[in-house]
Request: fold
Amino acid sequence: MPRLVEIYAPATTANLGPGFDILGMALEEPFDTICAEKTDSPGVIIDGITGDEGRLSLDPAKNTAGISAAYALKQLGITDQGIRMTIHKGLPLASGLGSSAASAAGGAVAVNALFGDPLRRPQLLDAALEGEAAVSGRHADNVAPALLGGIIFVGGLTPELLEPLPVPLGLVLALVTPNVAVPTAEARAVLPQQIPMRDMVKQTASVARLISALYRNDIEALGKAVEADGIIEPARQHLMPGLHEVRAAARERGAFGTTISGAGPTLCAICDSESIARRVTDGMELVYARLGLACQTRVTRPASQGCRVKIIE
Reply:
């Protein structure tokens, strides 16, 4: 069994428009890096965190990676050994890219890797959910793709209800993250508690069209489907500066559709080539420059696998 491992835990984009809490996609980049080693003393120690501007706790009981790692140790029945970890946050916090989920999934995968991978990835869902719940609530639309990769349909909070979906060939994503924070709790607080029947029917149809587009490898139809959220986006759009302007600019430059990534404020445009995606990010930057907001852009693709493990020694 290894003594020292590095875990690369991917960003994720959740919902994909109308699929609130039931759809999520892993991204090739950005990602968190967790360096973890086995210790002869029980429990979890977090030695340091970089890339977070000092905002995250080193207390493992208050850190998503620490919570999930402790749960995984308990899950494996390991009481006489533990792990020590350092974390580099490559994901921006409160950005809609699954930052807490990446740390949570990475902590669970680190423990499993150090003790010989006795559990299959879906079996680590409970541990990752435990870490995620401490910050963002108990939902799996980010932690499931962070663990498994690809696009995941989340039918519930147990492993047998996670369903991998086809990833369209040639799918490229243009991301823009304006420099405003949207905590998940705030984004959930504005959601409606009751939904008219006609809106529910439209939303169900939109999810069906989206999944159909995935199975048909139709990126253009996927782009249209991610913009067909008639329930969550209208409630949250006031938290997303420049949403409509960015959507228009992305479409003008060749994107098929743009949606809020998770709780936002990151916006995600659906493209079918890297050259188009780069033109789209240029247009996104121009929008935020006119609005007087700094932003970060990125071109990425769906990640075929979730957390990657590198054995150091």
